[in-house]
Structure formats: structure tokens, C-alpha cells
Design brief:
This protein is of the alpha/beta class. Helix content is 46%, strand content 8%. It is globular.
Length: 973
């Protein structure tokens, strides 16, 4: 009716040729109003205007002048088949914007089910900005209204955007939408709840919720992928995996389990990764196989005092349905495979994971941790996919047996650091300068592999970079800088120059430190207003930005606060330990021995007053720190070590007597020395005939990092003087570039050379560079599966050539190519005492083999050469054979899985015939035929020193294998 009034004579629905249509509309005004508005929704009116616009009965200006109230009304799914006809597409190639008008009704019907997915695609393709997307997603708009607004925005962007959108819709129509197929069978109230849940998750996830909380950083603008790898080797997966693989079937090790664990160290990006998954689901851009996604924060679950049923847990902590709660809950129970739960920070729960208390009834009330543990192990709501994040130190064998797979999050790759810095700095010139400075300061570059530290360095680039010898070296240095950065920007005097925050802001620092310390020792990371009072936290303290308001999907929660990041809480707790006069002398020993700190005396307030929940289990006060408390206590101790170093001693002398600082420093040194001795005493005596080796116990790397934070060579010398082993194993110890820096600082003080085994870590090229200072004390280095490239090898070999003790290296399962073989050739030519070179499972081809051959011709010491799992082929085998024919030292050669055929085998037969030292030759999984084996058999007749040639899985039939095995017993098939 508004249309008729506005157009003054133009009839409805394409009837303009009938002279009495306008009069008919006026005469039937009341009835038309009743028909259009009887549903209580504006959707019929908007649908009519869509039709009028598409048929040319309304101009664009007419359409925009008509006001329609935004109300909700579901719409069906339809799309005209003729649009996908190739002839029609050809006619419309240059009129995509016009097509958005002529096909508007059907486009609205289609898009209203996938607005978020379309927006994500438009954002990724740079047709839309984040502001465009947020404008369309306004909560007051229904899905159909959002679809109309989306079409309007696309038209305004021009032909390229219109074409992209139409192609996106076509692809969705051709592939079919899993979500749409499934939602056709659910109720209207379910769809409304789903929409409410998506809206809540979208609102909670659109801004970075962790360390970027004070700067309101858009997740779309800043999110950078971390390195994701499967914890268990999967034959179908080589290298990193993507976000979509977390909940997918890739890497499944236990088909009976439903829980996926994402493990990573503090600051590696676990919470942000989950936040990204939440946002993608909310926008229908990923995880479409799940109709509902329920996110939980374990640190928030810590605050739940009362016992809950599973239903109450689900709706109270996430999103409560407006109606038909029982119906929706019944659907969840009946269709668990369509539901996804995420639990962030399992390591932050007060209770360690246990399977002792079994619970199967979803309506039975129980403590929250019991509900969570039963969900994870599948006793409760079997079939629901769960994604749980945790630090590795809290992952127990009991938890592992309930996992369908474990994914490792290893922070940023070098390219990830580059991407994050460029996203953080909108000015490309600034970003380029920051990256240039980072690459000249490898210590800071190593720190940046942790996303939280990369953020700090990006925020404080002016303070951290370009300082020359005064550049920060430790994590403590970096956190001192970020604290100074915050105070500098908060101070009204910041324009007058650098402030002495440890003087001017000592009181708020101590208040925040007291809150942080109490939270750390009680496994408390969220604080209410009442929790702030015992520590006298003021509004001014909150305005500093270290404490931010905690986000919560639940509408029943009062305002709560948390530190920017758990590492920031640990830092402030450490400051409190160092400066406070209210802690007794046993605090530091307890902190480093990880004993219970809950009874630590405080002069200003009773310790338990800060506990978020008041009912403290009395028996727990008698126990040592649990597994879930240990990581943050260790981190706090690490910061305390750094803060008490000689280089930072002057910071605290104005507020703490020198005698007290010296006493605490001596306490830390003593604790570190005792801790290292405890590890050394645990080393078993070697088996007869073997050399003494030590496999690092949990906590060894942490002690090494504490020693490094203190930057005291005397402590490192004292610790290493008591370590007498030939081999030090640090496999699967989460060794990254930061840990490599600390290891090099400490291990360089060893009295005797050691073999350093760092297999299955995240050393990378930057970590390799950090290890160089201790290479002179390494007689062998094992770096299997560490994501190392040719760049890292170039620096490693340049240093190794200068090290007299260095004799062995193993680098299989990395990312090496032919570009590094020239470096290894130089190593072989230069070091005539080098014994073992193992480069299996890399990307070396015939060209690389030819480079290695040049070094092998000259070398007179190599005994073991491993090149399995590369691609050297016949040409590479021939080059190696030519270089090794007259060799007198090589004992073992592996060329398994290299695509070698009979030509290569015939060339290698000359080595078998003439090499007087060779004992084993591995040629398994190649392409060798009978002709090549005949050459090897003939060669063996001339050499009795060769003990075995392995030939399994080559191009031989069963009869040939049996015949040749009988002719020559040294051929192993």
C-alpha cells in the first residue's frame, strides 16, 4: 500500500496496462493491509517490493524511500534454474549488477541462509571490508533483511563484486549446503535458537579477546594461522594441517573417542584459534556439519560453585533458548553428532583430569569438573565432538587414552611472524622496518614465534628494536618493556620523556601483583568486584589496561575481570614475589620446588580472602602443587629469576632493602642449583658397553630457562660442572627458538663434549641459529622433525666447520632441498674427522646427490650416510657410486625409497664390488628389477666384507625373490 501511495498511479505486480488497477488498490486498501500484515512480520511487504524492483515497476530511488520495519520471518529456499543455463549466463556477463535486481527475490531467499558465509568470502576476496560486514550483521535485521542489505552493498561495489557473489551462490547450489539440508528437519524454535547462538558467538568473537583486549583488534584483521601438526604421525599427512582438519577425520588414532586435544605452550595461540573457529561457525563459513556449537572457558567454569546438570551447564554458560528448551535439549541428545563443544584451557581447571567419577545421566546434578571430565571421556552424551585446549604439561596419560587425536599448536612460523607484523601495522613502511629490525636481532625473532610475544614486540617496537647491545635478551626484558609501554601511554607526562614506572606506579603494581599472585597459587584467573576489594584494586588501576573485563556468553554473570593474558598475570605475580614485604621467607623455595603456597603468610590480608570461591577443600592444602597449577607456578618462577638478575637489581632498590633483594637472589640461585642436582642424580648408570646418557625429566628445560633469565654465567657453570653424560636427550620437550637460546647459554659451560638430541621439537631455522654458541661443545646433533630449511643449515654448517668436536649430524624429516647439499659437501671436504651424515626424508634430488658426491670424493672419514626417503633416482645413485667406489671408510649406506632403478643398482654394484669397508647397503622400496639385482649378486661374489643388501619392495615377482634369495643369502627381501 505504501508502494501504491508513493507511486501515485503505478499498479502492483506488473498490471500497469490495466486502467483501473490503481483505483482497485485504493478501494481494496484495507484488505491488502490485512493480507500483507496478518503475519505480524514485514517480510511479505519486503517480498512484494523485491518483486516490483526486479520487474522494473519500482526504480532504485523508489525502493530506498520506502520504510519497512525490521522484524523476523523465516523464508524458504529457492533459486531459478534458468540462471545457471550457460546461454543465460553468457547474455548477462556484463550486467551482473542488473542481475542482482532482476533475480532479487530468489537471491534473497537463497542468501538469507548463508549471509555469514557470503560475507566471509567477500571479505577474504577483498571486495568487502570488516566495516561493510559489521554493518550488514546488525542484530536488528532478520536474515532476509541482512540478505537484502548484502545485495545492496554488492551493487554499490560494482560489477566485480556482483560477479563474485553470483559465482559464490552458484558454487553453493552445485555443491549443496549440508547445513540447509539438515535444518529442514528441525523446528522453527531450534532455528531461532541457532540464530541466537550464532549471533552471540559472532559478537563475542569478532574482536581479539585475549592479549589484544584493550586495543579492540578485529579478529578478521589480525588473525594469523599458527603451525598445526598432528602429534601422532599419519601416513596421509606430511607437514602442517589446517583449521578444518582439527575436527575432521585426518589423523584419527582412536575411532571410539570423540575428543580432539589442541596442545600448546602458554602464548602459542590456543584461545585465539578457538575464537577463530567460533567466528567461522557463527558466519557459516566453516564447521557446517555442526548445527550447534557450545563454547566453554575452563577458567570461567572454575568460578561455578554449585552443582549443575548437563542441561543447566549447557544453557547457563552459553546461550539460553527463549522457548522450547526441552525440545532443543532433546534434539541435542538425539543428534550428538551434529553438536560441537569447545573447552578452552583444560590446564586452568583446579582439578586434574580424572575418570574416577562416572556420570551418564544428563539431568543428574554434579560438580562442573565432573560433568566436563565425563563429556571428554564419552560417558556423558557420547558422540558429541569436543575440542579441548591445554598446555602439554597438563596432558596426563589418563586424558590421552580418551582422545581421538591430538593436534600440536607450535606458534608462528617465520612466514606467520611476517604476516602478523604486517597485519598489526597498517603502515607498510613501519611494518617493513619492524621486520628488518627483527631479522637483525635473532633473539627477539626467536621470541616472536610465540604469538603473545610477537604481539608485545609489535606493540613495543620503538622501545625493543634498534637498541644495539642494550636490546632485550630475555622474556623478562620483554615483559618489563610492555609494562613500561602501558604506563608510558597512560601517563599524562609521557610527552616529557621516559617514565620510571617502578617508582611512579609502584603502588598499583603491588596491588595488581598481589591479586595476580593469589590467583596463581589458587588456580584463579577470573576476578569479580568482590575479589578486587581485598587487594584494594581501584578504578585507576583498572584503567591501566592490565586487567580487562572478562567476556562471557552467559547473561547470568556479573562483571568479572582477567589479566590481558595468563603470562601477564604470572609476570605481575613475580613482581609481587620480588618486591613485597608481606611474604615469608619460604615463598621462593616453595615456588621453585612447586610446593603448596596456599598457606603463605600475608600481613595485609588473609590469603583465602582472594579466592574466587570461598569453599576451599581443606585436604587440598596438604598436597603439593597439582599438574594444573604447575605451568603457571613455573612461569612465575621464571619471571622471578629474571627480575632478580643482576641487570635488573637496581629497579627494586628504592622500594626494597638491598639485603632483602640479595637474600631472594641467593634463594633463587640455591633453588636452581638444587633442582639441577636432583636431575643429575636421577641419571641411571650406563649399560655395559654403552655411553652414559640422560633423558631430560619434566622440569629440566624450565630450570634451564630460569638460569638463562638470570643471565649469570656463574650459575650456569656451577650447574653444568656436575653434568657428566655423553648424550643429552631432549626429544618431545617442546623445544622452540626460545628454549634453544637458553640451552645454548647453559650448555656452552659443559666440561666435556656431549651429543645433543632435539628430535621432534620446533627448533626451526631461528632455533638452529640460537644453538650456535654451544656447537663447540657438541660432538653430535640430532634434529629430526624440526621444520628446518636450507637457510638454517647454511648457518649451522658454517659454524660446525669451526668446531673440532663436531662429528655427527642427523636431520631427517625436515625441509631440506638441493640448495643445502653444497654446504654439506663443504663440510665433508673440510672436516676429515666427520663420521655420520643422515639426511633422510627430505627433498634432495639427483642434483643434490651430485653435490654431495663432490664432498664424498675428498672425505676420508665418513662411516654412515643416510639419504632414505629422497628423490635422487638413477642419476643420483650413479653420482654417489662414482664417488664411493674407492672409499675406504663408509660402513653403512641407506638409499631407501629414492626411485632408484636397475641403472642405479648396477652403478652401486661397483661400490659393492670394490669398497673394502662397506658392510650394509639399504635399497628397500625402490624400482630395481632383476637386471639390477643380478649386478649386485655378481658384485657380492668379489666382496666378503658386505654383510647385507636390503631389497624389499622392489620390482621383483615372488618367484624372482625366492630364486635370488637362495643364490645369495646376503640379499634380504
Amino acid at each position: 500500500t505504501n508502494v501504491a501511495n508513493h507511486k501515485a498511479g503505478k499498479p502492483l505486480l506488473g498490471c500497469k496496462r490495466e486502467p483501473n488497477c490503481f483505483d482497485l488498490v485504493l478501494n481494496q486498501r484495507t484488505e491488502i493491509l490485512r493480507v500483507l500484515c496478518s503475519s505480524g512480520s514485514a517480510e511479505p511487504v519486503e517480498h512484494v517490493t523485491d518483486i516490483l524492483l526486479s520487474q522494473g515497476e519500482l526504480t532504485w530511488e523508489d525502493y530506498q524511500s520506502i520504510h519497512v520495519l525490521p522484524e523476523e520471518q523465516p523464508a524458504g529456499f529457492s533459486f531459478p534454474d534458468h540462471w545457471w543455463d550457460p546461454e543465460v549466463r553468457e547474455e548477462c556477463q556484463n550486467t551482473f549488477c542488473q542481475t542482482l535486481l532482476t533475480q532479487r527475490p530468489s537471491l534473497v531467499s537463497t542468501l538469507q541462509h548463508c549471509v555469514d558465509g557470503a560475507l566471509e568470502a567477500l571479505l577474504t576476496s577483498a571486495h568487502f571490508t570488516s566495516a561493510d560486514c559489521e554493518g550488514i550483521r546488525l542484530p536488528l535485521r532478520t536474515p532476509s533483511q541482512q540478505a537484502r542489505c548484502l545485495l545492496d552493498h554488492v551493487r554499490a561495489k560494482g560489477e566485480a563484486a556482483a560477479k563474485f557473489l553470483l559465482e559464490y551462490i552458484q558454487q553453493g547450489e552445485e555443491s549443496g549446503s549440508i547445513l540447509n539440508k539438515k535444518t529442514q528437519t528441525v523446528s522453527r524454535e531450534f532455528l531461532k535458537f541457532q540464530k541466537k547462538l550464532r549471533s552471540s558467538l559472532s559478537a563475542q568473537s569478532c574482536f581479539l579477546s585475549t592479549y589484544g583486549g584493550t586495543s579492540h583488534m578485529s579478529l578478521d584483521d589480525i588473525y594469523t594461522d599458527g603451525q598445526l601438526e598432528l602429534a601422532e604421525a599419519c601416513p596421509d599427512v606430511h607437514g602442517p594441517i589446517g583449521l578444518k582438519d582439527i575436527t575432521g577425520e585426518v589423523g584419527m588414532i582412536n575411532e571410539e573417542a570423540d575428543t580432539v586435544l589442541v596442545s600448546g605452550e602458554a602464548g602459542s595461540g590456543k584461545s585465539t584459534l578457538l575464537q577463530r573457529l567460533h567466528l567461522l561457525w557463527a558466519r557459516e563459513a566453516a564447521l557446517l556439519e555442526y548445527l550447534l556449537l557450545f563454547p566453554f572457558s575452563c577458567r570461567r567454569l572454575n568460578t561455578e560453585l554449585s552443582e549443575l546438570s548437563f542441561k543447566e551447564l549447557l544453557f547457563q554458560h552459553c546461550c539460553w533458548p527463549d522457548r522450547d528448551q526441552d525440545e532443543i535439549f532433546d534434539f541435542i541428545q538425539d543428534h550428538p553428532h551434529l553438536i560441537l563443544f569447545t573447552f578452552d584451557g583444560l590446564d586452568e581447571l583446579k582439578q586434574s583430569f580424572s575418570d574416577e567419577h562416572r556420570l551418564c545421566c544428563p539431568t543428574q546434578r554434579a560438580p562442573v569438573h565432573v560433568l566436563l571430565f565425563n563429556l571428554i571421556q564419552g560417558s556423558l552424551l557420547k558422540g558429541v565432538r569436543k575440542v579441548v585446549t591445554s598446555r602439554p604439561s597438563a596432558v596426563t596419560p589418563v586424558l590421552k587414552k580418551n582422545l581421538c587425536k591430538e593436534v600440536l599448536l607450535k606458534g608462528f612460523s617465520p612466514s606467520g611472524i611476517d604476516c602478523f607484523v604486517r597485519k598489526h601495522h597498517s603502515d607498510p613502511t613501519v611494518a617493513a622496518k619492524v621486520l628488518q629490525s627483527l631479522h637483525t636481532n635473532t633473539t627477539l625473532l626467536g621470541l616472536c614465534h610465540s604469538p603473545v610475544l610477537c604481539w608485545i614486540v609489535s606493540c613495543c617496537h620503538k622501545e625493543l628494536l634498534g637498541c644495539g647491545e642494550g636490546s632485550p635478551q630475555t622474556i623478562t626484558d620483554v615483559y618489563l618493556t610492555i609494562v613500561e609501554h602501558f604506563f608510558q601511554h597512560h601517563s599524562p607526562l609521557r610527552s616529557t620523556g621516559k617514565i620510571s614506572w617502578h617508582r611512579e606506579y609502584l603502588d598499583p603494581v603491588l596491588r595488581l601483583g598481589q591479586l595476580a599472585f593469589k590467583g596463581i597459587v589458587s588456580t584463579c584467573y577470573i576476578f569479580s568486584d568482590k575479589d578486587l576489594d581485598p587487594c584494594a584494586i581501584t578504578k585507576e588501576d583498572l584503567s591501566l589496561g592490565f586487567l580487562i573485563q572478562s567476556k562471557d556468553l552467559s547473561v547470568f554473570r556479573s562483571k568479572c575481570y582477567e589479566f590481558l593474558h595468563v603470562t601477564m598475570q604470572c609476570f605481575f605475580a613475580a613482581v609481587y614475589v620480588v618486591v613485597s614485604k608481606d611474604l615469608d621467607r619460604s615463598t621462593i623455595p616453595k615456588l621453585f620446588e612447586l610446593k603448596n603456597l596456599k598457606e603463605t603468610s600475608l600481613r595485609t590480608a588473609c590469603f583465602s580472602a582472594c579466592l574466587l570461591y570461598q569453599q576451599v577443600d581443606e585436604c587440598s592444602l596438604d598436597k603439593d602443587a597439582t599438574a594444573v597449577e604447575t605451568p603457571n607456578l613455573q612461569m612465575t618462577a621464571t619471571f622471578a629469576s629474571g627480575l632478580l638478575s643482576q641487570r635488573h637489581r637496581s629497579l627494586w632498590l628504592h622500594c626494597c632493602p638491598a639485603t632483602a633483594i640479595d637474600r631472594k637472589t641467593r634463594q633463587v640461585s640455591k633453588c636452581l642449583s638444587k633442582g639441577m642436582q636432583k636431575h643429575f642424580k636421577s641419571i641411571p648408570q650406563p649399560v655395559a658397553g654403552e655411553k652414559k646418557s640422560m633423558h631430560a625429566m619434566p622440569g629440566f628445560v624450565w630450570l634451564i630457562k630460569c638460569i638463562y633469565e638470570m643471565q649469570e654465567c656463574s650459575i650456569a657453570k656451577d650447574a653444568m660442572s656436575k653434568l657428566e653424560v655423553d648424550h643429552l636427550k631432549l626429544t618431545y620437550c617442546n623445544i622452540g627458538p626460545v628454549e634453544c637460546t637458553a640451552l645454548a647459554f647453559v650448555l656452552q659451560h659443559l666440561n666435556n663434549p656431549v651429543g645433543l638430541q632435539l628430535d621432534n621439537n620446533t627448533v626451526g631455522d631461528v632455533g638452529v641459529e640460537q644453538l650456535l654458541p654451544c656447537m663447540h661443545i657438541c660432538h653430535s646433533l640430532y634434529l629430526r622433525n624440526n621444520n628446518i630449511t636450507d637457510e638454517g643449515i647454511h648457518k649451522l654448517i658454517a659454524k660446525s666447520i669451526q668446531c673440532d668436536n663436531f662429528h655427527k649430524i642427523a636431520l631427517f624429516n625436515n625441509r631440506l632441498t638441493d640448495a643445502c647439499t653444497q654446504d654439506f659437501s663443504l663440510l665433508l671436504k673440510t672436516k676429515q674427522d666427520f663420521i655420520s651424515l643422515r639426511l633422510g626424508n627430505n627433498n634432495i634430488t639427483a642434483e643434490g646427490a651430485k653435490q654431495l658426491a663432490e664432498g664424498l670424493r675428498v672425505n676420508k672419514s665418513l662411516k654412515f650416510l643416510g639419504l632414505w626417503g629422497n628423490s635422487i633416482g638413477d642419476a643420483g645413485a650413479e653420482a654417489l657410486a662414482s664417488a664411493l667406489e674407492g672409499n675406504t671408510t663408509l660402513v653403512w649406506l641407506s638409499l631407501v625409497g629414492n626411485g632408484i632403478g636397475s641403472a642405479g643398482a648396477c652403478a652401486l654394484s661397483k661400490v659393492v664390488k670394490n669398497n673394502v669397508s662397506l658392510e650394509e647397503l639399504w635399497l628397500t622400496e625402490n624400482c630395481i628389477t632383476r637386471m639390477g639385482v643380478e649386478c649386485l649378486i655378481e658384485a657380492l661374489q668379489h666382496n666378503a666384507n658386505v654383510k647385507s643388501i636390503w631389497l624389499r619392495n622392489n620390482d621383483l615377482c615372488l618367484e624372482e625373490v625366492e630364486e635370488m634369495a637362495q643364490r645369495e643369502s646376503r640379499l634380504l627381501f
